[in-house]
């Protein structure tokens, strides 16, 4: 298993380099002087020519292209992504501040997705063709089709503005600091409730459909028939034998849903003024804060790669065919 | 009589029509007997087997008949009882050796599961018994192998494991659906020997389902010949092989090339092909392919007649010698 | 045949109805130089004529082959054993109620979008009397209410449909075309070329699509054309991977060997044999992609970086609604509802296409 993990880690490195390279390509394809990506034009007029020259050297902007790429990759690897035009702070610091919020949101949404989605999928498969099954199948497609940002607004309108059950935005209440520890946790969760729900429910719809199909597939396998022929209770057959097999690819599905989760987070963070990476990126686009735009996008890709890595490793643990066998999945 | 199946009928309700996979099948199996159910692919033999344990997959359903196991009609028992019979008193072995084993559990665990359920053992007891059982079916190094997964075993060993699971509860009847078809010829012989040994040790009856007449000749006491959901001929194996009454049985036997036959002798198949079960010919379903058929055969399916000691045949043209 | 005639008649009837109900608007828009008005007015005339011609052609054809009851062809077709796999698929699709419903909805939306100049009662961008008409709730005169500038929300929604639908469809065309070519090249040539091209795809796929769009729009100052290109060029990777896989597997299949054995040139092999086989699932994913594109464009417009006002897009309309959630619930509700219905329809369409084209579901009956 560790050999597999090592192999995957090594495979991830060229991907990470590739991400930085693509960002580099974008920097150079952009209209105008690539310098504009690192230094705001209006600032340039105010600065000393020597300082500008230093910056030029730091990013190798007057050097041949492959040298520039090299310098860029080295800078990225060291975490030097330039300075935000808007905040005048290193981009890396900004991102480090914001990432936890996005991870909170995405992580809890994933949890919600896992619990609700899998449960609904199982129920749907077991009660195939029943009213509940049809409702879940159609319902999940419908929910999946609703744009997240609109669903968020609608829910806020109903539950926050009209009913007052949930807060409208922000991560915590105004009197947060006055609350007890439990109160603090509760307050955070209360603020997280709607955003997590919106982000998670769309995913859960997809997971439910997938789980249903997957479980039905597994249930038609011969070892399920054999298990029934051995006199095992239906509940055991489904929950123990079938589920264990059906869940294995779920991990990969979660890996694949990361990009959608992060993309969706951008919109959700906007609606709820949630101070995560997505909101940072949007504000940066509005303000033409290029270093931040580029860095957040790169960071998002890095998160996706790390997430997939985690999913792959988990998969290898969960599927005995990989851990013990020849490393090839079912 | 250990098992008596009376007038069993099972139908598949498809969009295109009703497919009568099993259409009025009657037979018996005595204690310790080996009965072979023979027929070409698609004749319904597997459905007969699944019907006994009420495992016919939808859109199929048993629509008639009685299944008397030790005097009790399995179609009328509570689900609890049926569960106990399954695996506990009737065991089943399937065709694809690996397919019946759950790929994510070690085979030892799968045996233990059955032992804990049907023989009330504790986990600890079951572990030990599982190893014993694995050794009993001829798997070398059973302690180590008990922790193995199905993909780590060869085809023959997987089948042994499946047989172990099916027989560790000392069932009265073992249903073996094409147990050797997917295996190499050399392994086939071993598996058949194993089945025979287990049968003797446990006084177990076997319903052997196969299309391989060689296997039938070697192992079966009695033979049932099936075609398009109906039984054409039943009787003691050696008598049937020596002197088949039904033209279909005759055709089947003739089609098997023997090692001694001369080169250049043409292979003799049965003309025509198995009809689509949704569009069966009227009367005797075999008559379009039968050399003895005449007008009478196209009207009504022939009734089953007793044609000798323990021999029955459903044909208008069959003659007892 | 009957079904087709019914559809053509229905379409023609709807066009004629629109013409009749909006006659004065039609007269007005006929001479307007604006391109959308031109398209709308010509469309509403040409379509019924075309339908009529097609119906006529079908009738003539039927007359010609009707005399002898063709037991083989007719009954075969009636039983569903149509000749080509496309016919079979189309028939199965037609039998799928949900999918057909979705198709109708999409067709209706497209018609609404094309005919918007004729159907909208108000100019979507004109601001006449903001004080008097500001934030009016839905009524007979304004079925969707008005926004804070007093603009009729329904008219804006109709024009918004044009933008959202056309951007999405064009973007999908870009994505599928680029992806198919890319994937075909990779799959057909194999080896190093394949490897290199696919590595690039792997890297691109690591970026969350929406982030990528965000970045590109942020860096490239997107006008409408650029938006379509950006949407399209961030979404081709799935298609490329899939096509490549299909080409790789189809390359080795027996009928390709047979074609080669018969001496067919490469070009013919690719176009006549390889691509049509791979095309079916691509159609399914294209339908799904349209839904995704509509959502993506709406998202970008919602954030203020896609389609910008005064051009209406359902996305930026929702954004307006968000400002007004305390006082005017209808501003956010209707565009979002339209978005949801449209995306749902495309998803159902994709489902229906998949079921109709998938050979496996054919087999399911006989298991």
The gross shape of chain A turns out to be: globular
Using only CA atoms, what is the Rg of chain A? Answer: 24 Å
Largest sheet of chain A: none
| Level-2 CATH architecture of the largest domain in chain C | Orthogonal Bundle
Number of strands of chain C: 0
Quote the average pLDDT of chain C: 81
Our count of domains of chain C comes out at: 2
CATH homologous group name of the largest domain in chain C: MetI-like
Note the run of SSEs of chain C as H and E: HHHHHHHHHHHHHHHHHH
Helical region count of chain C? 18
Protein described:
The complex is a heterotrimer of chains A (330), B (321) and C (367). Chain A has helices spanning 2-29, 41-46, 49-58, 65-78, 91-126, 131-145, 148-162, 181-219, 222-229, 234-246, 250-272, 277-287, 290-318, 320-323. Chain A is mostly helical and 330 residues long. In chain A, helix 11 (250-272) crosses helix 12 (277-287) and helix 12 (277-287) runs antiparallel to helix 13 (290-318). The mean pLDDT of chain A is 83. With 321 residues, chain B is α/β, with parallel strands linked by helices. Chain B has 10 helices and 12 strands. In chain B, the strands form 2 sheets. In chain B, strands 6-7-8-3-9-10-12-11 form an 8-stranded mixed sheet, with helices on both faces. A 4-stranded antiparallel sheet of chain B has the order 2-1-4-5. The mean pLDDT of chain B is 86. Chain C is an all-alpha fold. In chain C, helix 6 crosses helix 17. Chain C starts with a helix and ends with a helix. In chain C, 41% of the residues are buried. Classes of the chains: A mainly alpha (330), B alpha/beta (321), C mainly alpha (367). Chains in contact: A-B, A-C, B-C.
Short description:
By secondary structure, chain B is of the alpha/beta class. Chain B has 10 helices and 12 strands. In chain B, helix 3 (107-118) crosses helix 4 and helix 6 runs parallel beside helix 7.
Keywords:
heterotrimer; A: 330 residues; mainly alpha; MetI-like fold; 76% helix; 0% strand; globular; B: 321 residues; alpha/beta; 12 strands; 31% helix
What are the SSEs and their pairings?
The complex is a heterotrimer of chains A (330), B (321) and C (367).
Chain A: H1 2-29, H2 41-46, H3 49-58, H4 65-78, H5 91-126, H6 131-145, H7 148-162, H8 181-219, H9 222-229, H10 234-246, H11 250-272, H12 277-287, H13 290-318, H14 320-323
Helix pairs in contact in A: 1-4, 1-13, 5-6, 5-8, 5-11, 6-8, 7-8, 7-11, 8-10, 8-11, 11-12, 11-13, 12-13
Chain B: E1 3-14, E2 17-29, E3 34-38, H1 45-52, E4 60-69, E5 72-73, H2 79-88, E6 90-93, H3 107-118, H4 123-136, H5 142-145, H6 155-167, E7 173-177, H7 185-202, E8 205-210, H8 213-219, E9 222-227, E10 230-236, H9 237-242, H10 247-255, E11 305-308, E12 311-313
Parallel strand pairs in B: 3-8, 3-9, 6-7, 7-8
Antiparallel strand pairs in B: 1-2, 1-4, 4-5, 9-10, 10-12, 11-12
Helix pairs in contact in B: 3-4, 6-7
Chain C: H1 2-21, H2 23-30, H3 35-65, H4 71-79, H5 85-95, H6 97-114, H7 116-119, H8 130-133, H9 153-189, H10 191-206, H11 209-220, H12 224-233, H13 237-251, H14 254-261, H15 266-303, H16 314-323, H17 329-357, H18 359-364
Helix pairs in contact in C: 1-3, 5-17, 6-9, 6-17, 9-10, 9-12, 9-13, 9-15, 10-13, 11-12, 13-15, 15-16, 15-17, 16-17
